[in-house]
Amino acid sequence: MSGTINKTELERRAINYDFAAPVTSTASIAETIVVGFGDGSVRFFQAGHEPRLIQAHEGVVLCMAVNQSYIFTGGDDGKFLRISLSGDVEEIANFGSRWVDCVAATSEAYACSSDRATHVWSGKGSKASVLEHNSTVGGLSFDSKGKRLAVAHYGGVTVWEPNERRWKSKKLIWKGFHSSVTFSPDDKYIITIMQENALHGWRIRDKADLAMAGYPAKIKSFDWVGETPYLATSGADAAICWPFDRKDGPLGRAPVCVADGEKQLSTYVCSLSQENAVFAGFKNGEVLLAEIDESKDSIVLKNATNREITAISLTKSLSHILIGDEGGHVLWAALWAGALNDQFI
Amino acid sequence: MLNSTQVPVTVLTGFLGAGKTTLLNRILTERHGKKYAVIVNEFGEEGIDNDLVVDADEEVFEMNNGCICCTVRGDLIRILSGLMKRADQLDAIIVETTGLADPAPVAQTFFVDQDVADRTKLDAIVTVADAVHLEGQLGEHHEAEEQVAFADVVLLNKTDLIEGHSLGLIENRIRKINPYAKIIKTAHCAAPLDEIVGLNAFSLERVLEVEPDFLESDHDHDHDDDITSVSYVSDTPLDLDKFQTWFGEILQTKGQDILRSKGILDFDGQDDRYVFQGVHMLMDGSPMGPWPAGKKRNSRVVFIGRGVENMGLKEGFESCRAF
After folding, report:
1. Is A192 strand, coil or helix?
2. Following CA atoms A259, A263, A267, A273 in sequence, which dihedral angle do they give, to the nearest 10 degrees?
């Protein structure tokens, strides 16, 4: 694919917006990319349309998750909201002065956390199950079947599984605070981002620990890439990609480092799975695209602006890319050269 | 970086009933034209309701980095990171801590977490003390001593309820624990806000401005675990290597008991003053420009902590002399 995209082309065919409030979160449903902002607004981006503004929260949109039909957001106004693609906003829960820090969703269930409690709505009932933890929740993630829910917190992860009418839990222990959490695509591993500059993982079957340390900075973002699969992460002067193939995954293996930022710290990563490639956004606003291989080649998609990249998202058909930064700037562009120009009618 | 300016964070500590809530209400309601966010504790007093008030649990996390005393406030990392995503810029953030909380993890959070350090800075630790009850609290709770020891400012409140002689005694008691703190005497926490917020007390420049009494003090101690302070002066220039080795070792081995340390140093062969300050094992220091003309060059250090007079600090400091 080299040659099909270069920086001048993507930037030249892009539409740039300045929304003034920091971009805090992003997700995509089909051909819509959803972006959350620091002023409580949520915007929908679709090819051929002006961005659509949804006034969702009164404060910061702290977190976002999607399933096939809805966007779920949590805010520092204490609200947990469900937003439909037609823009209808429904308040699922309101925790007042307590923030909604984490959200997760599948087609069958959705969950949010506020302080130490995780609230899960599943099945037909509208009543939430409340799962208590010993510390503030740092991250939530459902497995690929939408059955088990991993809750990251101080001291490790609690994996919850519905059992008849109750929830049973299993603890994965590792000292320190764990924030964002993810299941591997085959549901065999659980990985967390730690407060320390490290990732931690467990093979669920035998609770074997995977300590992935050595990062120079805090990891803020990760994403699963490709068939192998790799877990691409930010937090270094490149995208650090850990292999999860073979029997033991990354145990005893070195990660592949791609998208060399030349001493700039990567702050956001986004998978381009079909090409076994990763988009890496940097603290200086630069965005690179690199295949996960030993060639070390990367393409500059966006030049430095001195504003930290806080969001990169693709439409499901990979027709469009959205890049957001801490200054509230959004770049929206057709991903491939030669694609129809994105003109408003 | 989008914001080159870091938002100052004031840590407000003091025992229940000392007047923290009165002060917080003033900060939130007075027409000062500033935008302050206040992070309150769930065990705090009632009566604060405002959009910019954030409820927090005091969650102290040990860092998994092999440093036993390296604890941080996990909730603060989460909340400060969230506040930095707001569309509007805050002028300052005030963090209330409960009377029984050790202020160290709060202070350490600003040294340890890079995101917090990038976007915010610890401005000052302000301890609200009840002039009537402080003496008793110092005797009963070591937390009260620690709060005074950590403070950059002691807001000595309810002075209208105490007579002049007793007030003098309580001031002396505070001085003995912490000669560096600025004492503001008030009734009803009516001190000007600009003496409490936006002090820049943790900047190295401020170390130069605040001149404590570097007395060759004659301490009298009842217990070895009392919190107190020691200060030493050397007119002979210090050897840089010797000092670094000694100071590094002191912080590593005694850092848990040394709450605050500050100093202005004259290194042999260096034109600039070297200024440092530390909280427990964490230290920040750098050269701070040439010595002012006409001012005598010497090295001065202050240690505030538990049992600091028995750590051999005097001998250690003197052994760093260049000749």
Report:
1. strand
2. 10
Most B CBs within 10 A among A76, A137, A200, hence the mutation to make, goes to A76
Q: Are A188 and A205 in contact (CB under 8 A)?
A: yes
B185-223 per-position pLDDT tens digit: 999 888 888 888 888 888 777 777 665 554 444 444 444
A51-58: Cβ within 8 A, 24+ apart:
A51/A17, A51/A330, A51/A332, A52/A87, A54/A83, A54/A87, A54/A89, A56/A81, A56/A83, A56/A89, A57/A81
**B84 contacts B69 by C-beta, under 8 angstroms:** no
Name the E strands within A31-185: 32-37, 41-45, 52-55, 61-66, 70-75, 79-84, 89-94, 102-105, 109-114, 117-122, 129-132, 139-142, 149-163, 166-183
pLDDT at B50: 65
Chain A residues in contact with B83 (beta carbon < 8 A): 76
Range of the domain at B153: 7-202
| Residues facing A112 on adjacent strands | A103, A119
- Tens of pLDDT, residue by residue over A126-175, are 789 999 999 999 999 999 999 999 999 999 999 999 988 889 999 999 99
CA distance readout (Å), B310 to A263, B219, B263, B283, B303: 46, 12, 19, 21, 12
Closest CA to A323 of A302, A342, A299, A305: A302
Q: Within a domain: residue A254?
A: yes
Helix (H, G, I), strand (E, B) or coil at B76: helix
Measuring CA to CA, which residue among A172, A169, A161 is closest to residue A194? A172
What is the separation of C-alpha B125 from the centre of its chain, rounded to a whole number of angstroms? 5
Query: Is the CB of residue A334 less than 8 Å from the CB of residue A342?
Result: yes
Q: Average pLDDT in the A79-105 region?
A: 96
Residue found by looking up tokens 């997760």 in the block: A104
| C-alpha distance from residue B169 to each of B10, B131, B134 (Å) | 28, 10, 11
What's the one-letter identity of residue A228? T
Could you give the ipTM of this predicted complex? Answer: 0.89
**What's the token pair of residue A58?**
């009164």
- Stretch A267-285: mean pLDDT, rounded? 96
What pLDDT does B202 receive?
80
In degrees, to the nearest 5, what angle opens at C-alpha B84 toward C-alphas B97 and A50? Answer: 150
Instruction: Judge contact between B75 and B111, C-beta under 8 A.
Output: no
Residues B79 and B187 in one domain: yes
Residue A79 lies in a domain: no
* B248 in a structural domain: yes
Q: Which DSSP category does A5 fall into?
A: B
CATH number at residue A165: 2.130.10.10
At B221 the pLDDT is 45
Q: What is the pLDDT of residues B134-154, one digit of tens each?
A: 988 888 888 888 899 989 999
Name the A residues in 138-167 with CB < 8 Å from any B CB. 138, 154
Partner-chain contact A136 B115, CB within 8 Å: no
Number of domains in chain B: 2
Instruction: Name the residue type at position B75.
Output: D
3-state SS assignment for residue B204: helix
Interface check A22 vs B, CB under 8 A: yes
Q: What is the pLDDT of residue A5?
A: 43
Q: What is the pTM of this model?
A: 0.87
The values of phi and psi at residue B103, to 5°, are -70, -10
Q: Which residues of chain B neighbour A76 with C-beta distances below 8 Å?
A: 54, 82-83
Residue with more model confidence, B113 or B10: B10
A-to-B residue pairs, Cβ atoms closer than 8 angstroms: 79
Do the beta carbons of residue B305 and residue B227 sit within 8 Å?
yes
Q: Is residue A29 part of a domain?
A: no
A243 occurs within a structural domain: yes
Percent of residues, chain B, with pLDDT higher than 70: 88
